[in-house]
User: Fold this.
Amino acid sequence: MADYNVWSKANIDVQTALGAVQVISGITKANPAVVTYVGADPTNGDFIKITDAVGMVEVNDQVFRVANVVGGS
Assistant:
């Protein structure tokens, strides 16, 4: 029988993994998506949460893992 109390005891809070806010200037509809932003470069493997997106509202309140960062451009 499954233990249904496992997740309630995990006490996971995604917000604690988030750092400074970045301003996104564009997101492509490609797979995987390419995001352009203003601010410090994230690190590959970081987790980010996108909120308040206009246009591509499908990404709002979703958590993504950063990959293939091209820094300084």
User: Anything to note?
Assistant: Residues 52 and 60 are 6 Å apart (CA to CA).
